Amino acid sequence: MLRDRVAELLSAFTGQRALVLGDLIYDTFVYGQVNRVSREAPVPILSELRRDAMLGGAGNLARNLVGLGGVVRLVSAIGRDAEGDAAQNLARTACGETVTLVRTPQRPTPTKIRYVSNNQQMFCVDRDPSAQLEPAFEAELLEAVQAQLADVDVLILSDYGRGLLTPSLIAGAIERARGAGVPVTVDPRGADFTRYDGATLIKPNAEELHAETGLPVESDAEAETALRAFKATLKHTGALLVTRGGEGMSLLSAQGEVVHHRSKPRSVFDVSGAGDTALAALSLGVAAKLELNEAMAMADLAAGVAVSKAGTAVVTPADIYADMRGDDAPPTWRVVSPDQGADIAEDWRERGLKVGFTNGCFDLLHPGHLSVLRHAASVCDRLVVGLNTDASVKQLKGETRPINDEATRALMLASLHMVDRVILFGQETPEALIQAIRPDVMIKGGDYVADDLPGADFVKSYGGDIVLAPLVDGLSTTNLVKKMAGEA
After folding, report:
1. Is 295 exposed, middle or buried (0-12, 13-18, 19+ CB in 10 A)?
2. Does residue 191 contact residue 206 with C-beta atoms inside 8 Å?
């Protein structure tokens, strides 16, 4: 798909209103190192370094919808436990106050704990509710869906098999959405997918479609046969789409046409949550009334980015632009806000990458700048450049500066292959930005003293390094300005 068309479709996602009904899971990732084996049993001992908590299941879907520009309303059930309290706080942080979480005394909050060493999952511990959802709580959930259908563009059923989406709740939600003229997309789970009949689009993966139909889903022809067999069991469903991992996706439209989309070859880092990312993009495409083949292509692009990230990661338009950055990719996606930069840097670190940071005004870009940037890129895996805003340059250099405005300077830096992200900052020093990015290594020109650099103490406090790059003699923006003015 052409990059300009991708930009148009991502723009169409913005502001689409999605109502998510499904299993909310409280996800925990425990990261550590394995250096020895237990004396009690032949099992490795994980020395914990840190743990991160986030929303999984329908919550991860909601996070990806927000990341892609959607506006989300979330309806789910949680237990009256500490994990439920934490999940509720995370949900409200992700979606705002448009969250309806029914607290059930008999059912604990579904949880998942993944233990990770050297970027590989060792094992996973799930806690699933065993009690059935009581009719009174089911009615409360259905009322919450009914109350919000008038203000949404798509209803998404996110079934993670934790017992929330009972057949009667599914049927009631689909019936009310169809009555309100709201399309319904479904990520199915379990056996007998006919309980989702009436949805606009159902999206199983290849393993689920095989289990449902008993048919292989390896080749395009096999995928088409399995989709048609599945469709024959559904009287009121519009379209079906099967995700096939590295083989891409296959779509059976309501008109009976089959379209295949081949995935871009890539290194798979972690498949956790990739299905949620695909469903988020697909559903926003349905909400925006895109052609389903284009919505499928966008879902495949987004899922491809997700598998290259660690954990249940959120995919943003900037991530998709970055993934397509070959050829004539516009460099503006590399210019991000401090909050975005902090999230991106954290994601890089989770992938085992060393994050570097340097900063400056970069007014008239010259070989001296390039020398420092090349050196900076050589001592890290990803380089973030902090760029002074116009106001801060004036404060530092005087009223006649900068020569180039901040948008021009940011674009020039973002166009350099050694620069991975550019972040504008308006403070006198970049210390606050350094604290947000938490670089593994901070780089400045050799005319500075390492211990005197703003943020140096902070970087060294967690074991980061300070590197001074060699300078090219006589090259500076100030000297260039004097030369142009005939003063040198």
Report:
1. buried
2. no
**Calpha distance 328→415 (Å, rounded):** 11
**Structural domains of the chain ordered from first start:** 3-323 (3.40.1190.20), 331-484 (3.40.50.620)
**The predicted structure's pLDDT at residue 121:** 85
- Model confidence pLDDT, tens digit, residues 444-457: 988 888 888 999 99
Q: Which active-site residues does the annotation give?
A: 276
- pLDDT digit string (tens) for 63-99? 999 999 999 999 999 999 999 999 999 999 888 888 9
